[in-house]
């Protein structure tokens, strides 16, 4: 069986080809799955997609008409897939339920430290041989308070790093993580977390209940010198509201690895084009903001685990097995 993989990065391609070697043929494309590119999948029983693929009703319908029966998404999140339509069309859908949580947790702290210690500004200055310290004043993290929204595997890994810094730990989640409690985390409601935390990091999935969990009211409740980090999903933050607060001169720093309108932008080279997204264009102009391109997961360790899980998902489909990674089982 030959598998068609959409949205494959250059670094991913050899890992995917090696993982499928001796099992199935795989054709890797750097284009992302959209309504325009869906017809490319005609004749492929199994396709693999990236996190920024758009699997709405029209795309799924196009895939089904073209003969696709199984979609193996190379990510944990699946908010980009209309699962109800997939089930109605008889499409099997699987995801990667687990990969290294340290990749994302470590990167979230990388963003926090970068904005706290003004690393990007300092690096840009020294390239011009400007070695002044004006405007580079940061803060010690030890003794300060971190607020973690979402204390699952990634949130726990993030919390362990915060504990190593000697920070006070506040958490919010639908259920407490005993490992975080053992580290000294105090679970509080969101209002207390926003009002008390010096650093706030988001590690919850994007669901209807968490969409814009950081909105105008939440941003207004935060400390003026707080640091906000989002390495989970862009839709967790109301970006327009965030820009409004930044225009007021608020927040010591904001680190964003995700953006709610990133589809069609992230993972692509837009350097020679006029970016039409006015909100993103304004966001990247603030000196206390660092925006990266959804790369928190992008370590050799994590990508290797994602690829291996994807191979296993395809094998399970071919053998008629049901695993914890299956979101929509095969039609009976």
Spell out the key features of this protein.
single chain, 332 residues, alpha/beta, Rossmann fold, 12 helices, D-isomer_2_OHA_DH_cat_dom
Any overview of this molecule?
This protein has a seven-stranded parallel beta sheet, sandwiched between helices. It has twelve helices and 13 strands. It is an alpha/beta fold.
The top level CATH class name of the largest domain:
Alpha Beta
User: In which order are the strands of the major sheet placed?
Assistant: 8-7-6-9-10-11-12
Please tell me the total number of domains. 2
Care to count the β-strands?
13
Unreliable stretches: none
Distance between the termini: 21 Å
Structural class given helices, strands, pairing?
A: alpha/beta
Q: What's the number of helices?
A: 12
Name given to the CATH homologous superfamily of the largest domain: NAD(P)-binding Rossmann-like Domain
* Radius of gyration, in angstroms, nearest whole number: 21 Å
Mean pLDDT: 95
What is the succession of H and E elements?
Answer: EHEEHEHEHHEHEHEHEHEHEHEHE
**What would the CATH topology of the largest domain be?**
Rossmann fold
Q: In CATH terms, what is the architecture of the largest domain?
A: 3-Layer(aba) Sandwich
What is the 3D shape? Answer: globular
User: Beta-sheet strand percentage?
Assistant: 5-15%
Helix content: 25-40%
